[in-house]
Amino acid sequence: RAMKIGFIGLGNMGAPMAKNLARAGHEVIGYDMATVAVDGVWSARSASEAATDADIVVTMLPNGDILRAVAAEVIPAMKSGAVLLDCSTVDVESARAVAADAEAAGLLPLDAPVSGGIGGAAAGTLTFMVGGSEAAYKTALPLFDIMGQKAVHCGASGNGQAAKICNNMILGVTMIATCEAFALADKLGLDRQAMFDVVSTSSGYSWSMNAYCPAPGIGPQSPADNDYTPGFAAELMLKDLRLSQQAAEASDADTPLGQAATELYRTFVEDEDGKGRDFSAMLPRFEARKRG
Ligand code: NAD
């Protein structure tokens, strides 16, 4: 069944996601505060106009404050029983606050952050981590099938964001561990290909080593082979690590490695040359340094 979909936030991720929904035959009405034209997507003049009469409103926005502001405008415009589907990566508290407001207005909220990046958004192969009610999840499932290849229902509102930041905290930590181990291996005179061949098939393996190897010319194609052009930019990794630490603080969880990874990416992005480079460019960073 074709649905009427409002889509707010047509940036690097939102534009290709909206395009895929339109191409699959849904009526998509988009809004972005910057003027953007997306193939097959109607343009609304405001977020509330895009939301009016929609069966589902999708948001793909930069952060929790912006999500809260957009939700305050959109929720009163939505029809009762419609789904408010936020795919942005935001703090757990904002996700839960927006969900509570939406529920109070008779809507079905979902937080469904994604992994897979711009390539996954364009190809329709994102993974969705979803928090919210079963009814809302079932309604949104056809959209997840179009925009992604996998959706995991993680429980109540906020749990999608919780899953996302826990995953990305592991990613940040394993990428740093992989990069510092390569830098150590170099100094020990161990060949990088040998290092990869051993670790990728031994207990040190991880996605960072096996699928996204930070050493150029080693392992599968990755941003390292393209002079560390993102990929997944270091500043986006920093954003997600900060969200993990905000959540850890709010829930009184002890995350020493998450904290250390956040501080390292902060230094890399803000004090060094990390901004605009892929997050795996931690390897040349470690290579250039001495024991601190
Ligand atoms: P982006 O900056 O390219 O897009 C955000 C869009 O939101 C912009 O076009 C901006 O104009 C629009 N916007 C901002 N405020 C608005 C408002 N008040 N009303 C309407 N539109 C507004 O960012 P992106 O890369 O598309 O990322 C979007 C979200 O997805 C972020 O939360 C990000 O963390 C997450 N994410 C990104 C990636 C990635 O690889 N880029 C991967 C996974 C998750």
Overview of the molecule:
The protein is α/β, with parallel strands linked by helices. Helix content is 48%, strand content 14%. The chain has helices at residues 14-23, 47-51, 64-74, 92-104, 117-123, 134-147, 159-187, 192-199, 207-210, 234-251, 256-271, 282-287, and strands at 4-8, 27-31, 42-43, 56-59, 83-86, 108-111, 114-115, 126-132, 148-155. Strands 1, 2, 3, 4, 5, 6, 7, 8 and 9 form a 9-stranded mixed β-sheet that branches. The protein is elongated, with a radius of gyration of 20 Å. Nicotinamide-adenine-dinucleotide binds next to helix 3, helix 5 and helix 10.
Question: Concise description?
Answer:
The protein has 12 helices and 9 strands.
Q: What attributes characterize this protein structure?
A:
about 290 residues, alpha/beta, 9-stranded mixed β-sheet, 12 helices, 9 strands, binds nicotinamide-adenine-dinucleotide
List the helices and strands and how they pair.
Elements: E1 4-8, H1 14-23, E2 27-31, E3 42-43, H2 47-51, E4 56-59, H3 64-74, E5 83-86, H4 92-104, E6 108-111, E7 114-115, H5 117-123, E8 126-132, H6 134-147, E9 148-155, H7 159-187, H8 192-199, H9 207-210, H10 234-251, H11 256-271, H12 282-287
Parallel strand pairs: 1-2, 1-4, 2-3, 4-5, 5-6, 8-9
Antiparallel strand pairs: 6-8, 7-8
